[in-house]
Design goal:
By secondary structure, this protein is α+β, with helices and mostly antiparallel strands. The chain is elongated. The chain starts with 6 loop residues before the first strand and ends with a helix.
Length: 68
């Protein structure tokens, strides 16, 4: 996140009584990642990796494409 400063929400629960909660703010551009649908896909991918399904690819090197 661009700003890692904590955000605190204060709620009055009674006369002179307040509850303070740390709020984790998700930038709007990243909200898709936290949808239930995407998180289900993440769990499936994690299960595939844990079961040994899949393969590790070499890191992409754009310099290799420059020669082509």
């Amino acid at each position: 996140m661009a700003n890692d400063s904590p955000v605190v929400r204060m709620t009055e629960v009674g006369p002179g009584q307040f509850v303070l909660e740390i709020v984790h703010v998700i930038p709007a551009a990243d909200a898709w990642f936290y949808t239930p649908e995407w998180q289900a896909k993440e769990r499936l991918a994690d299960a595939d990796i844990a079961a040994g399904r899949g393969r590790v690819l070499a890191p992409y090197d754009p310099a290799e494409d420059a020669d082509a």
